[in-house]
Design a protein that fits this description.
By secondary structure, the chain is of the alpha+beta class. It has twelve helices and 15 strands. The longest helix is centred in the N-terminal third of the chain and has 21 residues. The structure holds 1,6-di-O-phosphono-beta-D-fructofuranose.
Protein backbone atom coordinates (compact mmCIF):
# COMPACT_ATOMS: atom_id res chain seq x y z
CA UNK A 1 0.00 0.00 0.00
CA UNK A 2 1.26 3.48 -0.59
CA UNK A 3 0.09 6.98 -0.20
CA UNK A 4 1.40 8.29 -3.47
CA UNK A 5 -0.32 10.93 -5.48
CA UNK A 6 0.07 10.65 -9.22
CA UNK A 7 0.20 14.08 -10.80
CA UNK A 8 0.70 12.94 -14.35
CA UNK A 9 0.00 9.81 -16.27
CA UNK A 10 3.32 7.99 -16.36
CA UNK A 11 2.20 5.51 -18.94
CA UNK A 12 1.16 7.90 -21.63
CA UNK A 13 4.51 9.72 -21.28
CA UNK A 14 6.58 6.60 -21.47
CA UNK A 15 8.92 6.02 -23.19
CA UNK A 16 9.57 9.60 -24.33
CA UNK A 17 9.84 8.91 -28.06
CA UNK A 18 9.90 5.21 -28.62
CA UNK A 19 6.65 3.33 -28.08
CA UNK A 20 7.39 -0.18 -26.97
CA UNK A 21 3.79 -1.33 -27.28
CA UNK A 22 0.87 -0.10 -29.31
CA UNK A 23 -1.89 1.17 -27.06
CA UNK A 24 -4.55 -0.93 -28.72
CA UNK A 25 -4.40 -4.46 -27.39
CA UNK A 26 -6.32 -5.97 -30.26
CA UNK A 27 -4.05 -4.61 -32.97
CA UNK A 28 -1.05 -5.39 -30.85
CA UNK A 29 -1.94 -9.05 -30.64
CA UNK A 30 -2.93 -9.11 -34.25
CA UNK A 31 0.30 -7.63 -35.51
CA UNK A 32 2.78 -9.13 -33.15
CA UNK A 33 1.55 -12.08 -31.21
CA UNK A 34 -1.38 -14.19 -32.26
CA UNK A 35 -0.38 -14.21 -35.89
CA UNK A 36 3.29 -14.89 -35.32
CA UNK A 37 4.53 -17.34 -37.94
CA UNK A 38 4.64 -20.88 -36.60
CA UNK A 39 7.87 -21.61 -38.43
CA UNK A 40 9.53 -18.69 -36.77
CA UNK A 41 8.45 -20.00 -33.38
CA UNK A 42 9.78 -23.44 -34.19
CA UNK A 43 13.09 -22.09 -35.38
CA UNK A 44 13.64 -20.46 -32.01
CA UNK A 45 12.31 -23.35 -30.00
CA UNK A 46 14.15 -26.26 -31.58
CA UNK A 47 15.99 -27.55 -28.49
CA UNK A 48 13.15 -26.62 -26.14
CA UNK A 49 10.51 -28.37 -28.20
CA UNK A 50 12.38 -31.64 -28.23
CA UNK A 51 12.91 -31.38 -24.47
CA UNK A 52 9.20 -30.93 -23.89
CA UNK A 53 8.24 -33.69 -26.30
CA UNK A 54 10.39 -36.07 -24.34
CA UNK A 55 8.45 -35.37 -21.15
CA UNK A 56 5.56 -37.67 -20.39
CA UNK A 57 3.89 -34.96 -18.34
CA UNK A 58 4.02 -32.47 -21.13
CA UNK A 59 2.51 -34.87 -23.60
CA UNK A 60 -0.16 -35.92 -21.15
CA UNK A 61 -1.09 -32.32 -20.48
CA UNK A 62 -1.71 -31.73 -24.11
CA UNK A 63 1.45 -30.36 -25.66
CA UNK A 64 0.90 -29.94 -29.37
CA UNK A 65 1.93 -33.32 -30.77
CA UNK A 66 3.12 -31.92 -34.11
CA UNK A 67 5.29 -29.06 -32.95
CA UNK A 68 6.20 -30.15 -29.44
CA UNK A 69 5.33 -26.96 -27.60
CA UNK A 70 2.27 -25.31 -26.27
CA UNK A 71 1.47 -21.69 -25.54
CA UNK A 72 -0.34 -20.55 -22.43
CA UNK A 73 -3.41 -19.74 -24.48
CA UNK A 74 -3.43 -23.17 -26.10
CA UNK A 75 -2.92 -24.73 -22.70
CA UNK A 76 -5.94 -22.92 -21.29
CA UNK A 77 -8.08 -24.33 -24.07
CA UNK A 78 -9.05 -27.90 -24.68
CA UNK A 79 -5.52 -29.28 -24.84
CA UNK A 80 -4.81 -28.40 -21.23
CA UNK A 81 -7.01 -26.97 -18.54
CA UNK A 82 -10.07 -26.22 -20.63
CA UNK A 83 -11.03 -23.23 -18.53
CA UNK A 84 -13.97 -21.14 -19.61
CA UNK A 85 -13.65 -18.44 -22.24
CA UNK A 86 -14.16 -15.63 -19.73
CA UNK A 87 -11.09 -16.68 -17.79
CA UNK A 88 -9.09 -17.00 -21.01
CA UNK A 89 -9.98 -13.40 -21.86
CA UNK A 90 -9.04 -12.18 -18.38
CA UNK A 91 -5.78 -14.07 -18.54
CA UNK A 92 -4.82 -12.76 -21.93
CA UNK A 93 -5.17 -9.21 -20.60
CA UNK A 94 -3.16 -10.03 -17.49
CA UNK A 95 -0.55 -11.71 -19.65
CA UNK A 96 -0.34 -8.64 -21.85
CA UNK A 97 0.06 -6.36 -18.83
CA UNK A 98 2.87 -8.51 -17.47
CA UNK A 99 4.70 -8.44 -20.79
CA UNK A 100 4.57 -4.65 -20.65
CA UNK A 101 5.91 -4.74 -17.10
CA UNK A 102 8.67 -7.15 -18.16
CA UNK A 103 9.69 -4.68 -20.85
CA UNK A 104 9.64 -1.76 -18.42
CA UNK A 105 11.67 -3.56 -15.81
CA UNK A 106 14.37 -4.26 -18.40
CA UNK A 107 14.17 -0.90 -20.15
CA UNK A 108 16.96 1.70 -20.16
CA UNK A 109 14.25 4.39 -20.09
CA UNK A 110 12.67 3.34 -16.81
CA UNK A 111 14.84 5.65 -14.74
CA UNK A 112 12.73 8.55 -16.07
CA UNK A 113 9.63 7.11 -14.53
CA UNK A 114 10.18 8.89 -11.21
CA UNK A 115 9.36 12.23 -12.78
CA UNK A 116 5.82 13.34 -12.20
CA UNK A 117 5.32 11.54 -8.91
CA UNK A 118 5.12 12.97 -5.44
CA UNK A 119 4.86 11.11 -2.20
CA UNK A 120 2.78 12.34 0.71
CA UNK A 121 5.12 13.71 3.37
CA UNK A 122 5.61 11.66 6.49
CA UNK A 123 5.28 8.18 5.00
CA UNK A 124 7.86 5.72 6.18
CA UNK A 125 10.96 5.75 3.93
CA UNK A 126 10.85 2.00 3.50
CA UNK A 127 7.19 2.02 2.44
CA UNK A 128 7.53 4.84 -0.04
CA UNK A 129 6.43 3.66 -3.44
CA UNK A 130 8.97 3.10 -6.12
CA UNK A 131 7.67 4.65 -9.32
CA UNK A 132 7.73 1.34 -11.15
CA UNK A 133 5.32 -0.11 -8.57
CA UNK A 134 2.82 2.53 -9.49
CA UNK A 135 3.35 2.21 -13.21
CA UNK A 136 2.94 -1.56 -12.97
CA UNK A 137 -0.23 -1.04 -10.99
CA UNK A 138 -1.63 1.34 -13.63
CA UNK A 139 -0.74 -1.05 -16.44
CA UNK A 140 -2.56 -3.94 -14.81
CA UNK A 141 -5.52 -1.77 -13.85
CA UNK A 142 -6.01 -0.57 -17.41
CA UNK A 143 -5.66 -4.11 -18.80
CA UNK A 144 -8.21 -5.48 -16.35
CA UNK A 145 -10.55 -2.61 -17.14
CA UNK A 146 -10.23 -3.35 -20.87
CA UNK A 147 -10.88 -7.03 -20.33
CA UNK A 148 -14.40 -6.36 -19.05
CA UNK A 149 -14.00 -9.54 -17.01
CA UNK A 150 -12.82 -8.14 -13.69
CA UNK A 151 -15.45 -6.80 -11.32
CA UNK A 152 -12.87 -5.54 -8.89
CA UNK A 153 -9.12 -5.21 -8.55
CA UNK A 154 -7.54 -5.12 -5.10
CA UNK A 155 -3.89 -4.18 -5.22
CA UNK A 156 -1.19 -3.92 -2.61
CA UNK A 157 -0.48 -0.49 -4.09
CA UNK A 158 -3.96 0.92 -3.47
CA UNK A 159 -5.61 1.85 -0.20
CA UNK A 160 -8.93 0.44 -1.33
CA UNK A 161 -10.05 -1.96 -4.06
CA UNK A 162 -11.13 -0.45 -7.37
CA UNK A 163 -14.55 -1.45 -8.67
CA UNK A 164 -14.33 -2.00 -12.43
CA UNK A 165 -17.44 -3.65 -13.86
CA UNK A 166 -20.74 -4.67 -12.26
CA UNK A 167 -21.01 -7.74 -14.46
CA UNK A 168 -17.35 -8.76 -14.36
CA UNK A 169 -17.29 -12.40 -13.30
CA UNK A 170 -13.92 -12.21 -11.48
CA UNK A 171 -12.18 -10.55 -8.56
CA UNK A 172 -8.44 -10.00 -8.98
CA UNK A 173 -6.10 -9.46 -6.03
CA UNK A 174 -2.47 -8.66 -6.73
CA UNK A 175 0.90 -7.29 -5.89
CA UNK A 176 1.87 -5.59 -9.16
CA UNK A 177 5.63 -5.47 -8.61
CA UNK A 178 6.97 -7.30 -5.61
CA UNK A 179 10.62 -6.82 -4.66
CA UNK A 180 10.78 -3.48 -6.42
CA UNK A 181 13.11 -1.97 -3.87
CA UNK A 182 15.81 -4.14 -5.47
CA UNK A 183 15.10 -2.92 -8.92
CA UNK A 184 17.94 -0.45 -9.36
CA UNK A 185 20.34 -3.38 -9.02
CA UNK A 186 18.47 -5.42 -11.65
CA UNK A 187 17.61 -8.06 -9.09
CA UNK A 188 14.59 -10.18 -10.10
CA UNK A 189 11.13 -8.88 -9.29
CA UNK A 190 7.67 -10.32 -9.83
CA UNK A 191 3.93 -9.82 -10.13
CA UNK A 192 1.69 -11.97 -7.92
CA UNK A 193 -2.03 -12.43 -8.54
CA UNK A 194 -5.03 -14.38 -7.32
CA UNK A 195 -8.43 -14.75 -8.98
CA UNK A 196 -11.78 -15.34 -7.29
CA UNK A 197 -15.31 -15.43 -8.59
CA UNK A 198 -17.40 -12.33 -7.95
CA UNK A 199 -19.79 -13.00 -5.08
CA UNK A 200 -23.13 -12.35 -6.79
CA UNK A 201 -24.93 -12.55 -3.48
CA UNK A 202 -23.24 -9.25 -2.56
CA UNK A 203 -24.39 -7.41 -5.70
CA UNK A 204 -27.02 -5.44 -3.75
CA UNK A 205 -24.48 -3.84 -1.40
CA UNK A 206 -23.01 -0.33 -1.82
CA UNK A 207 -20.04 -0.45 -4.13
CA UNK A 208 -17.29 0.17 -1.55
CA UNK A 209 -18.57 -2.56 0.71
CA UNK A 210 -19.04 -4.93 -2.21
CA UNK A 211 -15.50 -4.28 -3.40
CA UNK A 212 -13.97 -4.96 0.00
CA UNK A 213 -15.97 -8.07 0.82
CA UNK A 214 -15.32 -9.59 -2.60
CA UNK A 215 -11.61 -8.98 -2.10
CA UNK A 216 -11.54 -10.47 1.40
CA UNK A 217 -12.40 -13.99 0.29
CA UNK A 218 -10.51 -16.81 1.93
CA UNK A 219 -7.68 -18.34 -0.12
CA UNK A 220 -9.60 -21.62 -0.21
CA UNK A 221 -11.96 -19.92 -2.69
CA UNK A 222 -9.26 -19.06 -5.22
CA UNK A 223 -10.05 -20.38 -8.67
CA UNK A 224 -6.66 -19.46 -10.09
CA UNK A 225 -3.44 -17.80 -9.02
CA UNK A 226 -0.04 -17.10 -10.42
CA UNK A 227 3.08 -15.06 -10.51
CA UNK A 228 5.28 -13.63 -13.21
CA UNK A 229 8.99 -13.62 -12.47
CA UNK A 230 11.00 -10.91 -14.23
CA UNK A 231 14.48 -12.35 -14.25
CA UNK A 232 16.99 -13.67 -16.79
CA UNK A 233 13.86 -15.31 -18.20
CA UNK A 234 10.31 -14.07 -17.77
CA UNK A 235 8.34 -16.93 -16.26
CA UNK A 236 4.59 -17.07 -15.77
CA UNK A 237 3.70 -19.75 -13.26
CA UNK A 238 0.04 -20.48 -12.70
CA UNK A 239 -2.58 -22.87 -11.45
CA UNK A 240 -6.26 -23.15 -12.24
CA UNK A 241 -6.71 -25.71 -9.47
CA UNK A 242 -5.32 -28.70 -11.38
CA UNK A 243 -1.59 -28.60 -10.76
CA UNK A 244 0.97 -25.83 -11.10
CA UNK A 245 2.49 -25.07 -14.49
CA UNK A 246 5.16 -22.64 -15.59
CA UNK A 247 5.56 -20.94 -18.96
CA UNK A 248 8.59 -19.10 -20.26
CA UNK A 249 8.26 -16.00 -22.39
CA UNK A 250 9.64 -16.46 -25.89
CA UNK A 251 10.72 -12.91 -26.64
CA UNK A 252 10.85 -13.62 -30.37
CA UNK A 253 7.09 -14.15 -30.61
CA UNK A 254 5.68 -12.89 -27.33
CA UNK A 255 4.24 -16.29 -26.45
CA UNK A 256 4.45 -17.85 -23.03
CA UNK A 257 5.56 -21.43 -23.78
CA UNK A 258 4.83 -24.29 -21.42
CA UNK A 259 8.23 -25.28 -20.06
CA UNK A 260 7.40 -26.75 -16.63
CA UNK A 261 4.18 -28.75 -16.84
CA UNK A 262 2.83 -30.16 -13.61
CA UNK A 263 5.52 -28.81 -11.34
CA UNK A 264 6.07 -30.92 -8.25
CA UNK A 265 7.97 -29.42 -5.38
CA UNK A 266 10.49 -31.92 -3.95
CA UNK A 267 9.01 -33.31 -0.69
CA UNK A 268 12.21 -32.19 0.98
CA UNK A 269 14.85 -29.71 -0.06
CA UNK A 270 18.19 -28.67 1.32
CA UNK A 271 17.81 -24.91 1.22
CA UNK A 272 16.37 -22.42 3.67
CA UNK A 273 15.60 -18.92 2.55
CA UNK A 274 15.24 -16.22 5.17
CA UNK A 275 16.69 -12.84 6.10
CA UNK A 276 18.95 -14.22 8.82
CA UNK A 277 20.32 -10.84 9.84
CA UNK A 278 17.15 -10.90 11.96
CA UNK A 279 18.41 -13.96 13.87
CA UNK A 280 18.55 -12.14 17.21
CA UNK A 281 14.91 -11.08 16.85
CA UNK A 282 13.74 -14.64 16.15
CA UNK A 283 11.94 -16.82 18.70
CA UNK A 284 13.73 -19.80 20.19
CA UNK A 285 12.04 -22.41 17.97
CA UNK A 286 13.07 -20.77 14.73
CA UNK A 287 16.64 -20.23 15.93
CA UNK A 288 16.88 -23.88 16.93
CA UNK A 289 15.50 -25.12 13.63
CA UNK A 290 17.94 -23.06 11.55
CA UNK A 291 20.87 -23.97 13.82
CA UNK A 292 19.95 -27.63 13.45
CA UNK A 293 19.51 -27.86 9.69
CA UNK A 294 22.54 -25.77 8.87
CA UNK A 295 24.62 -28.29 10.83
CA UNK A 296 23.00 -31.23 9.06
CA UNK A 297 21.48 -32.49 12.32
CA UNK A 298 17.83 -32.36 11.34
CA UNK A 299 15.54 -35.14 10.09
CA UNK A 300 17.34 -34.89 6.77
CA UNK A 301 20.99 -35.63 7.51
CA UNK A 302 22.39 -33.03 5.13
CA UNK A 303 23.77 -29.59 5.86
CA UNK A 304 21.32 -27.06 4.49
CA UNK A 305 22.38 -24.08 2.42
CA UNK A 306 21.06 -20.53 2.68
CA UNK A 307 19.71 -18.59 -0.30
CA UNK A 308 17.93 -15.28 0.10
CA UNK A 309 17.28 -12.92 -2.79
CA UNK A 310 14.89 -10.76 -0.74
CA UNK A 311 12.46 -10.80 -3.64
CA UNK A 312 9.56 -13.04 -2.76
CA UNK A 313 8.67 -14.27 -6.24
CA UNK A 314 12.27 -15.21 -6.99
CA UNK A 315 12.75 -16.92 -3.63
CA UNK A 316 9.48 -18.79 -4.04
CA UNK A 317 10.21 -19.82 -7.64
CA UNK A 318 13.54 -21.33 -6.62
CA UNK A 319 11.86 -23.11 -3.72
CA UNK A 320 9.22 -24.57 -6.01
CA UNK A 321 11.90 -26.00 -8.28
CA UNK A 322 14.55 -27.08 -5.78
CA UNK A 323 12.58 -27.58 -2.58
CA UNK A 324 13.26 -26.30 0.94
CA UNK A 325 11.56 -23.36 2.66
CA UNK A 326 11.12 -19.73 1.69
CA UNK A 327 10.11 -17.82 4.79
CA UNK A 328 9.54 -14.45 6.31
CA UNK A 329 8.80 -15.11 9.99
CA UNK A 330 7.67 -11.60 10.94
CA UNK A 331 4.36 -9.90 10.13
CA UNK A 332 5.48 -8.45 6.85
CA UNK A 333 4.01 -10.16 3.80
CA UNK A 334 0.36 -9.70 2.92
CA UNK A 335 -2.22 -12.44 3.27
CA UNK A 336 -4.48 -11.27 0.45
CA UNK A 337 -1.95 -10.28 -2.21
CA UNK A 338 1.01 -12.55 -1.53
CA UNK A 339 0.46 -15.37 0.93
CA UNK A 340 -2.80 -16.71 -0.50
CA UNK A 341 -1.84 -16.83 -4.19
CA UNK A 342 1.59 -18.33 -3.45
CA UNK A 343 0.16 -20.88 -1.01
CA UNK A 344 -2.35 -21.92 -3.65
CA UNK A 345 0.49 -22.53 -6.11
CA UNK A 346 2.56 -24.33 -3.45
CA UNK A 347 -0.30 -26.66 -2.57
CA UNK A 348 -1.08 -27.35 -6.21
CA UNK A 349 2.56 -28.41 -6.59
CA UNK A 350 2.36 -30.70 -3.54
CA UNK A 351 3.87 -28.19 -1.12
CA UNK A 352 2.62 -26.20 1.86
CA UNK A 353 1.87 -22.62 2.82
CA UNK A 354 1.71 -21.89 6.55
CA UNK A 355 1.82 -18.94 8.92
CA UNK A 356 3.73 -21.16 11.35
CA UNK A 357 0.57 -22.37 13.05
CA UNK A 358 -2.17 -22.67 10.46
CA UNK A 359 -2.67 -23.41 6.80
CA UNK A 360 -2.65 -20.08 4.97
CA UNK A 361 -5.55 -20.98 2.68
CA UNK A 362 -7.79 -21.69 5.68
CA UNK A 363 -7.40 -18.18 7.11
CA UNK A 364 -10.21 -15.67 6.76
CA UNK A 365 -8.73 -12.27 5.89
CA UNK A 366 -10.16 -9.49 8.04
CA UNK A 367 -8.25 -6.58 6.53
CA UNK A 368 -7.14 -6.01 2.98
CA UNK A 369 -3.56 -5.18 3.87
CA UNK A 370 -3.29 -7.73 6.66
CA UNK A 371 0.29 -8.95 7.21
CA UNK A 372 1.46 -12.24 8.64
CA UNK A 373 4.45 -14.58 8.98
CA UNK A 374 4.80 -16.79 5.90
CA UNK A 375 6.43 -20.18 5.39
CA UNK A 376 6.21 -21.74 1.93
CA UNK A 377 7.81 -24.86 0.59
CA UNK A 378 8.45 -28.58 0.79
CA UNK A 379 5.97 -30.45 2.98
CA UNK A 380 8.57 -32.42 4.96
CA UNK A 381 10.65 -29.31 5.65
CA UNK A 382 7.67 -27.27 6.80
CA UNK A 383 6.43 -30.13 9.01
CA UNK A 384 9.84 -30.31 10.63
CA UNK A 385 10.06 -26.54 11.09
CA UNK A 386 6.61 -26.41 12.70
CA UNK A 387 7.59 -29.17 15.12
CA UNK A 388 9.84 -26.56 16.80
CA UNK A 389 6.76 -24.75 18.09
CA UNK A 390 7.37 -21.02 18.24
CA UNK A 391 8.61 -19.97 14.85
CA UNK A 392 6.67 -16.74 14.36
CA UNK A 393 8.79 -13.64 14.97
CA UNK A 394 6.84 -11.40 17.34
CA UNK A 395 9.57 -8.76 17.67
CA UNK A 396 9.10 -6.61 14.61
CA UNK A 397 10.90 -3.34 15.10
CA UNK A 398 10.76 -2.46 11.38
CA UNK A 399 14.02 -2.50 9.50
CA UNK A 400 15.48 0.32 7.47
CA UNK A 401 17.07 -1.74 4.70
O1 LIG B 1 12.92 -7.15 4.82
P1 LIG B 1 12.49 -8.56 4.81
O2 LIG B 1 11.79 -8.96 6.04
O3 LIG B 1 13.64 -9.49 4.49
O4 LIG B 1 11.40 -8.68 3.66
C1 LIG B 1 11.72 -8.95 2.32
C2 LIG B 1 10.48 -9.25 1.60
O5 LIG B 1 9.76 -8.06 1.43
C3 LIG B 1 9.42 -7.90 0.06
O6 LIG B 1 10.36 -7.04 -0.52
C4 LIG B 1 8.05 -7.35 -0.04
O7 LIG B 1 8.01 -6.16 0.73
P2 LIG B 1 7.26 -4.89 0.19
O8 LIG B 1 5.86 -5.36 -0.06
O9 LIG B 1 7.39 -3.87 1.26
O10 LIG B 1 7.96 -4.54 -1.10
C5 LIG B 1 9.58 -9.28 -0.55
O11 LIG B 1 9.84 -9.27 -1.92
C6 LIG B 1 10.72 -9.84 0.24
O12 LIG B 1 10.64 -11.23 0.28
Amino acid sequence: MNSATIHSNPISNYPPKLRLFPSNLHNFHRNHYLFAQPNKRMAFLGPLSSKISASGNATASGVDGGSGFQTLREFMGKGGENVRDELVVLFSHLEYACKRIAALVASPFSSNLGEGFSVVAGSDERDKPKPLDIVANEIILSSLKNSGKAAVMASEEDDAPVWLADDGPFVVVLDPLDGSRNIDASIPTGTIFGIYKRLVELDHLPVEERAILNSLQSGSKLIAAGYVLYSSATILCTSFGLGTHAFTLDHSTGDFILTHPNLKIPPRGQIYSVNDARYFDWPKGLKQYIDTVRQGKGRHPKKYSARYICSLVADFHRTLLYGGIAMNPRDHLRLVYEANPLSFLAEQAGGRGSDGKARILSLQPVKLHQRLPLFLGSPDDIDELESYGDIQQKVNPGYDV
